[in-house]
Amino acid sequence: MNFSNEQLERYSRHIILKEVGAKGQGKILNSKVLIVGTGGLGAPAAMYLAAAGVGTIGLVDYDKVDLSNLQRQIIHRTKDIGKDKVISGKETINEMNPDVNVITYHEWISSKNIIDIINDEDYDFIIDGTDNFPAKFLINDACVLIKKPFSHAGIIRFEGQTMTYVPGKGPCYRCVFQDPPPKDAVPTCRQAGVLGVMGGIIGTIQATEALKYILGVGELLTGYLLTFDALKMEFRKIKISRRKSCQVCGVHPSIKELIDYIGPQCDLKEDYK
Amino acid sequence: MNIKVNGNDQKIDREYTVRELLDVLNVKMKEYVTVQLNDEILSRDDFDKIIVKDGDTVEFLYYMGGGSR
User: Fold this and answer.
1) What is the domain count for chain B?
2) A156-165, A219-228, A257-266, B54-63: which has the minimum mean pLDDT?
3) HSE (CB half, 13 Å, CA atoms) of A44?
4) In terms of residue numbers, what domain contains B14?
5) Which end of chain A is more exposed for a tag (fewer CB within 10 A), N or C?
């Protein structure tokens, strides 16, 4: 790959790393990452991946920027209130790094569109930055079925968790959490609150996993659930195993088509976002 | 007897089923918590059958949703 002088300088702190080098930076520039949700987790993940030079970043969100988002969703600014989040996110990324091609998907994900969105640019890695369980299970099942790696994460109050799924290499999200919890059984950030930095910490770990996957270096959070408690300032890396009875990646999978967990379990208008 | 719960040492007075242990330890969100016993994620249907024994390692794993809004 031929770098311009500007690129050599922009990415010099990457290129000097022996684990990255010019070859690795070339891989990053040629890579494609899809970020579902441009909120607390997706915002910092998108910004660090943009700064790193990920060549194609897909942003999926149907929401508009709200004043209450700005305490943590740092890709959006006060002037962006009322704007579609994907547009606001694209504008910020374009200002940060002209090397990045941003593709926007102004829609909520569902069983009807998620695979088409992932296949649209044949994304290398998917980041789940969503805030609800129907979407988290949908992303998991889609990635298992079409064999795509992805990073799961969740944040609430002062806590966060994340794990990385790589096809054939470890447990999926459903191995650990078999089905979505009933609606309102588990609080959302809107109901329970979240310290703004939690998205920064956990979303940046998701971006780190994406870069490591692209570069093929180090050890991913595959087969581990990383949990973070900010009040105790404690990380725990819990070894987790595949569940043979997993409905989607187990020995006899029962899920062969994607499921929309809406209806009794989820209020479409309020929570399926 | 001693077991390890989410990385911490925990003394319990006797063996319990997983279901009983959720009550004994007053585990939060016990209707929805995932239980991993010695590296194996348990099916909810087995909570009444499986006994937690001396020296076992138990992880309670919780749903965490938030992220976007």
Assistant:
1) 1
2) A257-266
3) 21
4) 2-61
5) N
Q: To which residue do tokens 């719960």 refer?
A: B5
Test the B interface: residue of A65, A84, A131 with most B CBs within 10 Å: A131
Is B68 within a domain? no
Q: Confirm if A45 and A129 have CB atoms less than 8 A apart.
A: yes
Give the CATH number of domain A15-271.
3.40.50.720
Q: Does residue B66 lie within any of the structural domains? A: no
Kindly state whether B15 is in contact with chain A, defined as any CB-CB distance less than 8 angstroms. no
Closest residue to A155, CB basis, from B34, B59, B64: B64
0.90 exceeded by pTM: yes
* In contact, B34 and A7? CB cutoff 8 Å: no
Segment holding A84, helix H or strand E: none
Name the closest residue on chain B to residue A156, using Cα atoms. B66
Count Cα neighbours of A193 within 13 Å in the Cβ-side half-sphere.
Answer: 3
pLDDT in tens, A103-145: 999 999 999 999 999 999 999 999 999 999 999 999 999 999 9
Q: What is the pLDDT of residue A35?
A: 98
Mean pLDDT rounded to a whole number for chain A: 94
Q: Angle at CA A125, nearest 5°, toward A189 and A180?
A: 40
B44 belongs to a structural domain: yes
Residues present in chain A in total: 273
Q: What pLDDT, on a 0 to 100 scale, did the predictor assign at position A253?
A: 96
**Running along chain B, 69 residues long, what does each successive block of 10 average in pLDDT?**
96 96 94 94 94 97 77
**B61 part of contact set with chain A, CB < 8 Å:** yes
Q: Is residue B67 part of a domain?
A: no
Q: Is B67 on the interface with A (CB under 8 A)?
A: yes
Separation in Å, CA of A23 to nearest CA in chain B? 33
Distance (Å) from the alpha carbon of B56 to chain A's nearest alpha carbon: 15
Domain CATH code at residue B24: 3.10.20.30
